[in-house]
Amino acid sequence: MTSPDQVDAPLDSAEVLTAVPYWTERMYKPGGGQDHLGLGSVVTDRILPRLSPGINVLTIHPRYWSFYAFVLSEFWKRDLPRTKAALRDWYRPLECIYSVACSLCTGPDHRGSPIGTRRIASKVAEAPEGFDPRFDYMDSTMGGYGLYYATVMQSIGLVVLADPRLGLPVDAVTPAGQVVADAFRSAIAGTEYYLNWIDRHDELVPHAVVAEYGDHGCLCNMRQDTAGDRPLLADAFLHQGNPTDAKARRETLRFMCELASQTKGAPVNQASFRRLIYFGADYATDQHTGSTFVPTESVNRTARKWRLYQAREYFNASINEMWRRLSCWGLQRDGDLFPIPMSEVLESIDEIDFSSIAADMEIDLPIGGLSSSSPFEELLAWATSVGEITGQLDDRWELDAPLTEDSIIQWLEYGSTSKDSGPEILAAALTLITFVAARLWAPELALLEPADWFPVTEGGRDRLGIERFLIELRSRVGEGATVGDIAKWLTIDYVISQHEQVSTAKLATTGDTFRFRREAGRLRFFDKDARVGMNDSRFNALATFLFEIGWSGYLYEDEHSLSEEGELMRSTGDLPPTGAFDLSESTTP
Ligand SMILES: [Zn+2]
Prior knowledge:
Order of helices and strands: HHHHEHEEHHEHHHHHEHHHHHHHHHEEHH
Number of helices: 23
Strand order of the largest sheet: 5-7-6
Bound molecules: zinc ion
Distance between the termini: 38 Å
Strand content: under 5%
């Protein structure tokens, strides 16, 4: 099933990305275009990997960890040449049939789709008598493993990647990976597929054989108590690999269990996840009262980091939207044919207009209004007032306030391409970043727990860190800067210069991505799309993980209460180690 989420469609399956390498998470922005200011990469490369290491946008199904370990293990059991070509020839038929098997699964817990679905779905729909293991289910040589899972499986210590310097010509499972592979094998050991078909790559595998395989080995079957790989995988995720990463995973998984527990009875999708982690609340609907999420003491620091992650998303959204608007504004003035003098670009900023969003949101502007010549301090005070902003880091941040980051994003229809380029858009985007600034205004917030503050500092100079922005903004406001001064500063330094730098850096690899650039005092525009959007928050990956590892129901659905194990995770933050990995100090097969 697909996950209902209008604001950011979560990645239901990874097949749309089959032609790009695994590190492409940073390039993949659902609705987000190409990261023209380099801000999305701060989130995908710096912030999210610290919050949720190993469980990323493209590695959402935990059972793939055991399936791929099994495939490698079966390869090494056989007398096959230890070459990449031989491994590929072994690997592809196994993944192909596995994807078909998962596609045929009709289990009650089945959600999402296996890798390769885009091509396999039509084959499955034809209901043939048998399936060709050599069907070209995806382009990438080493399929979902090569694209998405290999590096994270290595980081958790289940595989070692080929390294000729170590005398390892192809990837192999570690002793820990062997334990996991054995558990997957025992789940499917009795199937006709494993007994008679796994080596036969030149014959059609009968439909019934593949279906039976799916009944035992599907991604969703790990929820069954009989799935021996589940406790092992849970153990691996909670305790294996780099200890800092393992600790971060435990903390985020505990945090997710707490969130699942507090929101049971109402569905959570990515948009509501953002509201829950940032505001501690979601909207009520006709069917559901609005969920709330109040971090307990034990998850408070993790919750704080996720909240600051979301602050970075709003911060990015503000600057990206200013960039999109400028691009659109220039093209509407034929700036691609006749470059526009910078003086005109800056003059246009003085038309910034707050009345439109204020009227639509039914809120009053300050007496005397807000315009380009108003002191920025007035905008800051207004945002603080209409946003009911307390300036504290761990308070409830009011979702029901007259204006919020979330309502500004919705008013902007951020991520859609339909909005135009008027001065009211600039006003809304500037208000959005002002909200973030107002929340984090007090310098002493950084000292509350410095280790939690990294989402604010990440980005630094090159990628526009929030911290750096705040320091500069406080100083400018202290000197009496006006709204127009700040809007021009951000337009020149954060939008135009930043876009020029990022596009210049991309020339060698991605090609020409300029949407505008300065030429002798003028701004020349280029007639190309200017898409923006938030990064995937990894909500879909974490929600799918919690569900398929058997800790909670599916968060997208009303009923998603915790299992006994999930409750143990929530209350203690860990599960007892299985002991199965005690042998796994060595990393060679
Ligand atoms: Zn299934």
